[in-house]
Write a structure and sequence with these properties.
One of its GO terms (cellular component) is cytoplasm. It is an enzyme of class 3 (hydrolase). One of its GO terms (biological process) is rescue of stalled ribosome. Keywords: Cytoplasm, Hydrolase, RNA-binding, tRNA-binding. The structure is a single chain. The chain is an alpha/beta fold. The protein is built from 6 helices and 7 strands. The protein has a single domain, classed as Rossmann fold (3-Layer(aba) Sandwich). Helices cover about 40% and strands about 25% of the residues. Strands 2-3-4-1-5-7-6 form a 7-stranded mixed beta sheet, with helices on both faces. α5 packs antiparallel against α6. The longest helix is centred in the C-terminal third of the chain and has 24 residues.
Length: about 190
């Protein structure tokens, strides 16, 4: 069985450690832990990993956040992966830092990357793992906040948090959405 795991983010060193790149960070952490590497391919950095009889296909779209749907659709078709086997990992300013929320489907909730995926796939029937980044910003400063780097106190906690998010993604693929939700939603 094949799964498509998509980490959302923006390419370029200036975005590397920003809150909006939480999806990329989760996939980078998984790659470091499990020994797979990403290669630049069409529309995305991609990697494959076999785990417990499952084929996991990871992508980090290079289309920038707001056009992520193009890469998701391309690899969904290229790898012949059904929508129910897709997991999108993204940041969420409406969740406190350190909280995870896994859902089998849902609305984009104001997230432009998810909004584009919804439009391109013409469905909201795909799983998403929302990685809380908090919302400690003043009115009108949302863009600066999500494109800003994590403060020192959060950077210290970040590796453990990314590990939990990666484990949630692997659980989704190996034993299903319900078990992953039971284990990782708080």
């Amino acid at each position: 069985m094949k799964f498509l795991i998509v980490g959302l983010g923006n390419i370029g060193p200036e975005y590397a450690l920003t809150r909006h790149n939480a999806g990329f960070m989760v996939l980078d952490r998984l790659a470091a832990q499990h020994g797979f590497t990403f290669s630049m391919t069409r529309l995305a950095y991609t990697a494959k990993w076999q785990h417990k009889g499952k084929q996991l296909f990871f992508i980090k779209p290079t289309t920038y956040m707001n056009l992520s749907g193009r890469a998701v659709q391309y690899y969904m078709k290229q790898e012949n992966i059904p929508v129910e086997n897709i997991l999108i990992i993204t940041d969420d300013k409406d969740l406190p830092f350190g909280k995870l929320r896994l859902k089998p489907k849902g609305s984009p909730g104001g997230h432009n990357g998810l909004k584009n995926i919804d439009e391109v796939l013409n469905t909201q029937e795909y799983a998403r793992l929302r990685v809380g980044i908090g919302n400690n910003f003043s009115k009108g400063r949302q863009v600066d906040f999500v494109l800003g780097q994590f403060p020192e106190d959060e950077l210290i906690q970040l590796p453990g948090y990314l590990d939990r998010a990666g484990n949630a993604a692997i659980t989704f693929c190996t034993i299903g959405i319900q078990a992953a939700m039971n284990n990782y939603n708080q």
